[in-house]
Amino acid sequence: MNVSTLISDVRKMFSTSSGQASCRTGMSARARSAAIAASIAEVWRSASPGGGPDPACPSLPRLACDAAVRHVAAMTQPGARILIATFGSRGDVDPMIAVGRGLRRRGHRVTIATSAMYAQLVESYELSFAAVRPNLAEMLINSRELLDPEFGTEYLIREMALPFLDESHADLLAAARGADLLLTHMLTFAGPIVGEQLGLPWVSTILAPMWLAPVDAQTRETRRAWVRPVDRLRNRLGLADAGHPLFEGQHAPELALALFSEAFAAPEPTWPAGLRATGFCLLDQPSSEMPPELARFLDSGPPPIVFTLGSLAIWDPGRFYAEAARAATALGRRAVLLTGRRENLPPRELLSESVVAFEYAPYGPVFARAAAVVHQGGIGTMSNVLRAGKPMVIVPFAHDQADNAARAAALGVGRVLPRDEFEVGRVAAELQRVLGDAEACARAAALGRRITAEDGVATACDLLEARLLGSMRVASRVPT
What we know:
- The protein is an alpha/beta fold.
- It has 19 helices and 13 strands.
- Helices cover 46% and strands 11% of the residues.
């Protein structure tokens, strides 16, 4: 059988409904071999527009062969193998788990690759896990520099992520072998490199709109110095420059996903051409994780004010929880303090039957029962408050939090209180303004309904499946 016949026969097989069904349920070894041979032939023809030797020629580029095999394997297996790489706090990990769960429900085989500290969390959602260094659990204990409002992001990149770039690259490269698609967080600097090395279809993500803001030339150059290890690794591997790793180089050209709602950040002309906003991708945590004592508290009286610092600012909360307890008492309001760590629990004398504290509770069901939420403004916490439709007071610490806070204030659903002004008098005053503003409460509720109506996970999964299908159709165009 010649190459043309192989290609023609396999195309016919894949184009019929019965053929597609047989591909999903399994093929004979002979048929599978023929399909692989046909795909390799297409790769070869693309690489040699004027024709070329038979595809069995040993000079056929290995990368093209690998792409052809992946092309057919993706069509003949129950679902694609998708690797999702992320780095950071729960606000960075939870949306990726949410997308992973959505893909798994569609029959795909999903692995989350991130810090070892999240292994139990990932596996609790029945997703496969791959550890990628560094282990953030060992680095967060002394994290005051990480939460510095001016230098925190630089510290995160230069002192926490990039000193381990070689290790991250090795771990991610091993995890990605055999994958059909790679989805990456912007701070997984090894991700685009691994995708390029393996010829994988790559999709990037942005979780917070701050990372899409244009900057001046001096800022670009300053931040380029932060990421020189990425340039050095690419050079060592013989890869061409792919642009600034914190700007254009972090965006996959075919598809980049903004995992937030356009109601929170409307598209800007400066955004990358391939960027698509999906809506927030929220990880619904089971109500069974609610402490029974907290459930009883919520049932026993009017909606409380909820105070939380997410999963990052809890490592350097200062007097946040003590002042929160005092402010709630001064207002005569019920309050729930979610401290994240036992060490953050306020002194017992500041708690009462009306002001209670817990290390952890699932945001969804707690925020739904709140009168208002006071929080740090991280994108994970912010998205949950917005969906709950509650007014808020935001106390930004570092990173994207100030930008998120400014957006919430501009939408008329919250007020911003600087961290160094977080004391009982100011907190009480801001809460009175928020809770007494009927229009702000109505705006928050309306925005919550809009965000709830969006299905960010489904939209993200649709786009990823379309990208996967497109990569199968053009597998022959992988650079050689």
